[in-house]
Amino acid sequence: MIHLIIAEEPGMMDVIMMAPVASFIFGITIATSLWAFYNNTLFSNLILHPYSVSRGQRIYTVITSGMIHNDWMHLFFNMLSYYFFAFQLEPVLGHWQFGVLYVASLILSDLPTIYKHKNDDWYHSLGASGAVSAVIFSAIMYSPVSTMSLMILPIPIYSVIFGILYLVYCNYASKHARDNVNHDAHMFGALSGMLITIALHPHVVNEFIMQISAKVQELTH
Question: What confidence tier does 116 reach under pLDDT thresholds 50, 70, 90?
Fold first, then answer.
């Protein structure tokens, strides 16, 4: 998470006004996930089935699969990560721009999975991880030298270093892991987040480079 020093904790209405799109996505994702936990028919209708999508069926699940989760822990960690980044990102990126980033990354992060498993009738995928990865990496583009701490490794590291390590891990896990986690969605969601951010705000590239250069100079002097 990014550690920020703020003078006063904003109230719920302040957060909603500051980031209405992020708030809506946050609320609808939690509500739909909880509903699907107790409704097997809804769960089955919303989950991504690459075999069907590649044959022109259930296309809508490219989006709806990001609104449901496998269990409470899956939902908790995705929404916790989303909470720490999305509400800070939207005021910087823009309201409709944040919506485009999230939905487009949700779709783009699933495309490699659909292609990879187009002939696997048994394979299903769900969760907002691809879009959440996009949100995190968009935030990294704006604050590459902010510090982040992971729950499993509570040592502050620069967000740009975390981003590099994350992509390396996702690439490795996609090829070698057997943990039923869709690492492809994580990696392509992250890459989509960076590319869409650059497309929406090209100036972010110069700011990204300047921040890293300034930090390198600070550390070497």
Answer: very high
